Amino acid sequence: AWKKYSATGFKSKDDFQKETVRHIETTLARSLFNCDEKAAYSGTALAFRDRLIIDWNKTQQRQTFADQKRIYYLSLEFLMGRALDNAMLNVGLKTAAKEGLGELGFRIEDVIQQEHDAALGNGGLGRLAACFLDSLASLNYAAWGYGLRYRYGIFKQEIENGYQVEIPDYWLDFNPWEFPRNDVTIDVQFYGWVNKYTDDEGKQITSWQDGEIVTAVAYDVPIPGYGTATVNNLRLWSSKASAGEFDFAKFNSGEYENAVADEQRAETISAVLYPNDNMDRGKELRLKQQYFWCAASLHDIIRRFKKSKRPWKDFPEQVAIQLNDTHPTLAIVELQRILVDLEGIEWNAAWEIVTKTFGYTNHTVLPEALEKWSVPLIQHLLPRHLQIIYDINLYFLQQVERRFPKDRDMLGRVSIIEESQPKTVRMAYLAIIGSHKVNGVAELHSDLIKTTIFKDFVKIYGPDKFTNVTNGITPRRWLHQANPRLSELIASKLGSYEFLKDLTLLNKLENFVDDKDFKKEWAEIKYANKVRLAQHILSATGISVNPKALFDVQVKRIHEYKRQQLNIFGVIHRYLAIKNMSAEERKKLAPRVSIFGGKAAPGYWMAKTIIHLVNKVGDVVNNDKDVGDLLKVVFIPDYNVSKAEIIIPASDISEHISTAGTEASGTSNMKFVLNGGLVIGTLDGANIEITREIGEQNVFLFGNLSEDVEDLRHNHFYGNHQIDPELNKVFDEIKKGTFGDEGAFSSLVSAILDHGDYYLVSDDFNSYCKTQDLIDETYKNQDEWVSKSITSVARMGFFTSDRCINEYADSIWNIEPLQVKEEA
Ligand code: 26W
């Protein structure tokens, strides 16, 4: 293990027990005699928290003293999951805690499970932000995350009669990992009007006045790094009625209810995470959230910058702000407003500061996910910002016109303002224009944005403004914490846990692909993880599955482009095949468990229909005596980070089967392979780079290529659209009512039969099924399978988020780590 840096806090099992018991008895005011698992969790968390706080304070002091550039990662989503196990790993005293808790009569695994997931995110983008925070701290970068402190995270999913039901996720009843900073508040303005006048000295003044004020209160969350004393800060803003604004007069004049209603309205801003993934809905409250968070974060950043008394032109040397998708794009406008209106800086000088400060990461090419805000809405909520957006656009279009005087259409195409009814602001264009770098999240995706949605901007700015940073994942959570036995086995072969800091060291595992004992242990660990998942499945769904069967997993948000429908149609196809098999043939087939999980956005009908179909197919297949263990179909409810930690290490095959060109990167593909699972996938997102790294012979690829998608779609409408005959048989079975009322699934079927099959399910069906058959064959040779598994893990070093963060630091932020001196 690594060196312990912190000189304070507990050092041994006895120390740990003393601290934990003290917290249980005093902080929680509980007696040890009625201490349940929840109280044991709370006491343990508080004991570890104490240790983090010391390093946290020191880190903040060190970074202030060094006074060098800081990174600010602005993200509306941080999908953190649980914190205790991570704190234990990074503080480095898990063994002491395990023994200490054991003596008090608790199993550490059960205690860890008491914690409520911090689920302030939807899916990939939010979890990426969490992995990035882990890497930034582990690599000693001076970095802050900025987000919103939602009272309700992503909803909890229950399945009732095969349908998704959403339950509010109130997660803040006991959260030892956040620190309210009641002294760190920022007043944020909305509505009002813009006053332009000349002051006594003849200066032009623009002032935004008479708005409504809402106060942002900071809540800080410590982010410990692994193998270092760095503990960075995640600052989440909570909204409350402003003390200045809040109408105490109303209380006195008997308008008690109105006064309370005002207060409630202010608190609504940070009340709930919007549960849409890749779907822009344009709600006013969402825009309010975005501005509230951007304004509070920027004012906080500027306050910190001003302490060093540097001139404004140094701002980009001290501050790098990364925009996690377009959600924080208003920060660009807000900084320009502060510089021009409040600091009196000339427009062009201000704009240079702005563009040098921001970087923008795009996470999707799906048109329905690209944010557009209606001009009247912005006019109403942020009148001064709308003017600034128009000015930014004017200067930009003038520049474009000078460079491309003959291309009249160009101006309309690249304008920030879309001339629709009503007019809208194209946030991605604003983000590109206001940033010095734009990146995609995997090679194909970064190429696609340059040749499709942002093509004109490549012409205008040249190709160097656009770059790629392929996503990554933190191996601390996704290997060591989720799969401790595998991590331990790897460490025993490599001689240390150094690979958790330098994941490329995994390549030494290739020396052991022919080591019989090693392979046996490798396979045993996978089996044990499958047993653990089987137990979870039984308790969560009542379905009993055989851990010896092939576990085939697809867990991610439900979306048509991710094609869970292709998977479940494939399952039905398999079911029909089994029904038609002789007893002899059945004996030869590898038993399989098809495992699904994922949430549907509450308003996304098609996604909910897919969930319903999976559950109904499960009801039929799982109770068919003919089929027995040969096929089980499971929908695991409420997929989240902590469930992922159980599911991912237990998979034999995972599915990453999006229509080519639609999945920007995917990150669970990396998690599965890093845990020794093989992948069935399309040539999409990071699957492409995974294949390049681990070798084509270790990936089950299928389906059409991205460059063919457009033609295929065209042919569906204008050619002779032939549906795959085997898929037609699946549809016939659904229409026969085998899985219940066919009407319930008609939208799903007719999307393919009647509406052009936009996601090419039929085009890829045959290739998908054949590849599944190949998987069956390959799985029968367990020895070969395990070799593939080991080789793949050995070659996954590239996909650590540490590599990603170093790339961002080099090519976008221009920042070096702040080294930490080791303490005795
Ligand atoms: C405006 C509504 C909305 C909400 C969320 C639009 C778009 C989003 C996200 C960008 C969706 C998302 O999570 N995208 C995923 O980002 C991951 C991290 O880069 C990628 O790995 C996934 O491929 C991408 O779908």
UniProtKB/TrEMBL annotation:
It catalyses: [(1->4)-alpha-D-glucosyl](n) + phosphate = [(1->4)-alpha-D-glucosyl](n-1) + alpha-D-glucose 1-phosphate. The modification N6-(pyridoxal phosphate)lysine is found at residue 671. It is an enzyme of class 2 (transferase). The keyword Chloroplast does not apply. Its cofactor is pyridoxal 5'-phosphate. NCBIfam families: P_ylase. This is Alpha-1,4 glucan phosphorylase. It comes from Lithohypha guttulata. The gene is GPH1.
